[in-house]
Amino acid sequence: MQAEQLIEAEGLVGALDLAADLVQRLASGFPTWSLPEADVSAGVAAAQRLSQVSQTLTAVLAREADSRSLGAEHGLSRVDWLKAQAPTLEGGAALALLGAAMNEPRWAPLSEKVQTGQVTVAAAAVVLRLHKDVVRIADREQLDAIIDVIVDNIEHLSVKELGRVAAQARAALKPPSELEREDAGRRLGRALSRIGSTAGYTEYRLRLDPEGSAVLDAAIDPLARPRPDVGWSGETKEDPRTPAARRADALLELIGRAVAAPQGVTRTPRTRLVVTMSLEALLEQVRGAGVADNDAVLSPGTVRRLACEAQIIPTVLGGPSQVLDVGFSQRYFTSAQRLALARRDGGCSFPGCTIPPQWCEAHHVVPWSRGGPTDLANGALLCGRHHTIVHERGLTAAVRADGVTWLLGDLPVTIGPRAPDPRAPDPSAPDPRAPDPRCAPEELPLGA
Asked: What digits encode the pLDDT tens for the residues 21-32?
């Protein structure tokens, strides 16, 4: 019996029941052990296509339910109505969002690609969420133009690639103030919780924003690689640790290095981040964002702040994403320079802060992206919180041989003992770029 005849004879629900029964019989009783390798591969592909077609049909039915406002008389949302019909339904929010959009003329091109199987429900939902997220604050013409380009090319992108595109578009469409507000809100959402103890182990749960995850992944990954093990007889064996165990060991190693760091100088190199972004976005000439190696999307302000302390390697892009420059990893403070900063500033240089130097970051007073050198005359120690505040508020500072004065506008902030008045005379002050004799025998580098 042909498919058209089956549908005509059984109707939609009957045909679906027969199809589900057939697939269930294949899953439970077919002798898959007898299949040649080629059929196993083809079977996996066909089963996945069947799953995708099933999701597409569910979206089409969700469109019909939305057009009839099914569930509204019982006070149910579109998602709740769908889940009431299929309690095991996965991706209900995406299906409800797509079903409603398929009734709007604006989304006709996307709807057609979904119905013809060119685009998955998950991919279409990424575009719809992007539009929903920024429609109230973005320029409408710019938003429509970006959405049209994405929809025109959506079938050529994986869901992961589409997520990157959407994140970049979101950063380009949102005003800088909105991005800064979101960054601040996400930082407040960071959490480390102790869950409990089981079988002699203590379990923790860590929640990080994109910035935090990019920093943690960049720091842990190099230390979490498999290491050869050595047997009792001297033979080399594979690392017996699981990936999760290697990451746990790497985290403990990082913490051990940090707490054992003498005189404010860490015992491990700066965290290395590779961030891809346009040159214009880096210099704040246009809106944009950077993408870290772990696909975390970072705002330009976050990238500029991290560049002070992390060994950040910006892959700066020009016109149609040509690489203009890869480098600047030398633009971070050396151990000798951090020693000198620790002696000069005594800890966080922000007025009133008492965080010791070993918990501080070295900050470029004039940002490195604007040509600021990596030397003592352009450096200041800041704790993590005040480092964020300085970047968010665009504060500058007057750096002298005996300390740092942070400026709010043209007026010095003089709370606390570590804020010398920049207007006071400084007779016979040593050149802050000159090597500190107390750092001997190591010679202080003068900059990157």
From this structure: 999 999 998 999
